[in-house]
Amino acid sequence: MTGILELCAMSSDSQTDASAVQRQHMVDVQVRARGIRDERVLAAMERVPRHEFVGGKYRDQAYEDHPVPIDEGQTLSQPYIVALMLAALSLRPSDKVLEIGTGSGYQTALLCELAATVYSIERHTSLAAAAEFTLTRLGYSNYKILVGDGSEGLPETAPYNAIIVSAAAPRIPGPLFDQLAEDGRMVIPVGSPHAQELQLIRKQLGEQRASVMEGCRFVPLVGAYGYDMDW
Length: 231
Description:
The chain is of the alpha/beta class. The protein has a single domain (2-216), classed as Vaccinia Virus protein VP39 (Rossmann fold, 3-Layer(aba) Sandwich), CATH 3.40.50.150. 33% of the residues lie in helices and 25% in strands. It contains six helices and nine strands, in the order ααββαβαβαββαβββ. Strand 7 and strand 8 form a beta hairpin. Helix 1 packs across helix 3. Residues 1-14 have low confidence and may be disordered.
């Protein structure tokens, strides 16, 4: 029996070592080499086990340089895009963050590493439950996941120092901008169903200050201030 237990432990350690190597390669080649310099973001991506948020036949693709399908027709974004969005927010350890689109929970875990409190809204109950299970299993506690219309935000816990939107909107949702604190930052993909621009929105003296980061393509933000239906 002891021999079997030792073999199981060795197998588990081997898998852990392999995923750590994959994470390091992902960060070095896909993220750092493409210009991401926020050391807190890079370190968080080195720590968070991305493969734990991918199930089934796509698990082996968790660290590859492309989006990975998850349930409900959604995706786990390409590592570089996740890093780009997080770095643009310039998160501080004391920040309160609103995430629109929990998805697998991977980005939620990164936010938990980078900020004090994370509120995340997901419209699919099954995804919210799965993300909650994984986050809890990994020991995260500074977050709250809710099921609802992310385009309306979460006014009861506003204002937020940062808002990150992981779904494309036809325009900046008014409620989300309203829920930003003064000098707050929001990253959101904006555009048509087939092509969007990743935008950084800053709230300065109550006004929007927008800058375009790069082209992108995300799943739709469905809701009262997003799109009416799936594309």
